[in-house]
Write a structure and sequence with these properties.
Blueprint (H helix, E strand, L loop, with lengths): L1 H19 L2 E8 L8 H6 L1 E7 L5 E7 L14 H9 L4 E5 L11 H16 L5 E11 L1 H11 L1 H5 L10 E5 L7 H6 L25 E8 L4 H14 L5 E10 L2 H4 L7 H12 L3
Parallel strand pairs: 3-4, 3-5, 5-6, 6-7, 7-8
Antiparallel strand pairs: 1-2, 2-4
Helix pairs in contact: 4-5
């Protein structure tokens, strides 16, 4: 019995090594342009780049970690396994850090995320990627930041880019109303709803780029409803590209952490969305 268990363990290790061999990893690359950045920005505004070993114009996924815009890392306990999972699909993955509250306030963290997306659009071709096949995703706070970059054109506009330069956006359990940390900065209670210019839902329109919204059935209070509201108003505006995935038996954490599983319905939906909008 022990020999069987040891053999299975060895085979598992071999499989992990083979999977890790599908990509290379470059860490702590700055995505800032120009001079005059603070020491905190210089330290924080970095990304990890997972590169597939296959040649050709591959797809790229930009990922933003969660943490209420107050904590979290690009190689955190959810972010890193998720990035590795999508890297094993033969795509590049960009996992970016951004500045955090309370050291900065709105909209600094969104500006950072937009800068990392602009960096990807500008540079991924140098690594063999197709700049026309760049997607943006993220979990929780990262989902909110992903959605803000995709919905409010002024952030990418600062880099002479447009949200439609990105092939699609896939926020996972993100806040689609004004984020609770932004409301905190405004002195507004966590569960008092607000939709202003710091909310993705404020910008719903017919011409918004493709979105796949993912949320779990056991998410945080009101999180399902605000995501459904976003989807409903995108449809009301006759946006032809809005899609929605409702994850069964998924809470706020597992809707993202389970993406690492090959048979996870959310991961399958994301890959199908990426394939659809890569053509």
């Amino acid at each position: 019995m022990h020999r069987v268990q040891i053999a299975a363990f060895i085979l598992t290790l071999i499989g992990l090594r083979a999977s890790a061999g599908d990509f290379t990893l470059q860490t702590n690359m700055s995505y800032l342009s120009g001079d005059g950045h603070s020491a905190y920005a210089t330290k924080r505004c970095k990304l990890d780049l997972y590169l597939p070993k296959n040649k050709g114009k591959f797809t790229t996924l930009v990922w933003f970690h969660g943490g209420s815009i107050q904590s979290g890392e690009k190689d955190g306990k959810i972010a890193k396994p998720v990035c590795e999972r999508f890297a094993r699909e033969g795509m590049a993955v960009v996992s970016a850090n951004y500045r955090l509250h309370p050291k900065v306030t709105f909209p600094a963290y969104i500006e950072d995320c937009a800068a990392s997306v602009a960096w990807t659009l500008e540079n991924i071709g140098n690594f063999g990627g197709d700049p026309n096949k760049v997607f943006v995703s993220g979990h929780s706070a990262g989902g909110y930041l992903c959605a803000m970059v995709g919905m409010d054109p002024k952030y990418l506009g600062k880099h002479d880019r447009s949200p439609n330069d990105v092939a699609g956006y896939l926020p996972v359990a993100g806040q689609m109303i004004t984020h609770s940390t932004v409301r905190k900065e405004q002195g507004i209670h966590r569960y008092r709803p607000l939709i202003d210019e710091s909310a993705p839902s404020y910008f719903v329109c017919k011409d918004a780029p493709p979105f796949l919204i993912l949320v779990g059935d056991d998410d945080l209070p009101a999180r399902v409803e605000e995501n459904q509201l976003f989807v409903a108003f995108m449809k009301a505006n006759k946006n032809p590209h809005i899609e929605y995935h409702f994850g069964e038996n998924r809470n706020h954490g597992t809707i993202a952490s389970k993406l690492t599983e090959e048979r996870d319905p959310g991961a399958k939906r994301m890959l199908a969305f990426i394939k659809k909008h890569s053509n």
